[in-house]
Amino acid sequence: MKKTSKLISAVSASVLCSLSFSSFAAPSVIPDAPSLSAKGYVLMDYHTGRVLVEHNANEKLNPASLTKLMTSYVAGQEMKQGNISKDDVVVISRNAWARNFHDSSKMFIEVGAEVPMMDLFRGLIIQSGNDASVAIAEHVAGSQDAFVGLMNSWAKKLNMNNSRFANAHGLDHDDLYSTPYDIA
């Protein structure tokens, strides 16, 4: 009887303690999604792939400079497979240099310059250089058109079923599109 009484007292004390601590806990508030002016977006949980918030997630849009993410990814895969090296030095072609459109993002590389591959990667990612993206594409695949074939092949492997790439830099092109969902 004494044991039962002690057990009931211990359980009661535990319940009372847990109830008193829960009264201090702040309520969990999940804020509304912010108002964005983007044509489309998606926010996903990295671990589960669950969509947390989206707007026009499957609408085909021009990815613009987000195209350079795929350019970087494809070049990285080619590096991983040993087809190119981070230590390569790339000779800049007239075609790559010609991506210096007025008011467009560029690395300011010159025709015939010998540029280390990792400098081109920095120019691609940090400067969003259109010239760097074409130089990388030509180095990896011999031409930008051949590189675009690699981009579209990788897009299929990554289940980017609503994406089509038409160049390595993302400047407007009728055949260039993706969706926020595919990019996420």
Helix-strand blueprint:
Layout: H1 2-22, E1 41-44, E2 51-55, H2 67-80, E3 89-91, H3 94-97, E4 114-116, H4 117-125, H5 130-141, H6 144-157, H7 180-183
Antiparallel strand pairs: 1-2, 3-4
Helix pairs in contact: 2-5, 4-5, 5-6
Element-level helix/strand string: HEEHEHEHHHH
How many extended strands? 4
Question: What's the CATH H-level homologous superfamily of the domain at 64-183?
Answer: DD-peptidase/beta-lactamase superfamily
Q: Compute the average pLDDT.
A: 88
Pfam family, one: Peptidase_S11
Family: Belongs to the peptidase S11 family.
Active site: 65 (acyl-ester intermediate), 68 (proton acceptor), 128
InterPro entries: Beta-lactam/transpept-like, Peptidase_S11, Peptidase_S11_N
Give your account of this protein's structure.
This protein is mostly helical. It has a domain at 64-183: DD-peptidase/beta-lactamase superfamily (Beta-lactamase), CATH 3.40.710.10. The chain has helices at 2-22, 67-80, 94-97, 117-125, 130-141, 144-157, 180-183; strands at 41-44, 51-55, 89-91, 114-116. The strands form two sheets. The protein has a two-stranded antiparallel sheet. α5 crosses α6 (144-157). The active site is at residues 65, 68, 128. Keywords: Carboxypeptidase, Cell shape, Cell wall biogenesis/degradation, Hydrolase, Peptidoglycan synthesis, Protease, Signal. Residues 1-25 form the signal peptide.
